[in-house]
Amino acid sequence: TLGVTTMLTAKLFREPKFYLVIAMLVAILDEYTGDARHILLQYHFGVNAWGSFACITSYSYLMLWVVAGFLILISDVPFSSENTLYECVRTTRVQSILGRIWYILLVCVLYTLMVFLLVSIVQFASPLHPDRWDKALYTMSRGQTIDGVFLRIPASIVAACSPIGAWAAASALLTSVLFMLGLMMFALSLYLN
């Protein structure tokens, strides 16, 4: 089981689709948050990486691109590869299926961490002070603009918990949704084949 998961993970990092998904997410994040980032840099506001991730993942437009990138990454899980002969000889069908399910879970967790890192890098966000909200996110959550730039930051997230708590909730939700979507896709391909 672990051998199948390791093989698929090594294959993922060797393929260009992994790097194309990263480029796609950077382009979408830059387009979506570029104006706000320039204003924050102009006024020397620091942005909290934990809270920024939690707030940005509440946008449905951005989440469509995140889910599309995930589906691109796991699109070849149900299909055979150059190592199919190894799987047939060394593992049973059940071990192969369990290895692929573990692979989907691993990709979900790594992909969520990758999205967090990309949000932090694109916004020049700081991972320091995970227990308090920064001035920019707090101002935008109150519906105010900064030089005409406004990002819809849910006030309920800012009022309900700390940035690290919001990040943990957003990460758990994103990982579980992606895992269920990956499992549905894998189960459907097993059923059809």
Keywords:
9 helices
Task: Describe this structure as you would to a colleague.
This protein has 193 residues and is an all-alpha fold. Helix 3 packs across helix 6. 74% of the residues lie in helices and 0% in strands. It has helices at 2-14, 16-42, 49-56, 60-73, 84-90, 93-122, 135-141, 155-160, 163-192. The longest helix has 30 residues, at 93-122.
Write a brief structural summary.
This protein is mainly α. The chain has nine helices and no strands.
Portion of residues within helices: over 70%
Write down how many β-strands occur, each being a DSSP E stretch of 2 or more residues. 0
Report the radius of gyration as a whole number of Å.
19 Å
Q: Could you say which overall geometry the principal axes of the C-alpha atoms support?
A: elongated
Tally of helical runs? 9
Residue windows where pLDDT falls under 50 for at least 5 positions: none
| Largest sheet, strands/sense/barrel | none
Average pLDDT, all residues:
81
The span between the termini is: 21 Å
* Category by helix and strand content: mainly alpha
The percent range for strand residues is under 5%
Run of helices and strands: HHHHHHHHH
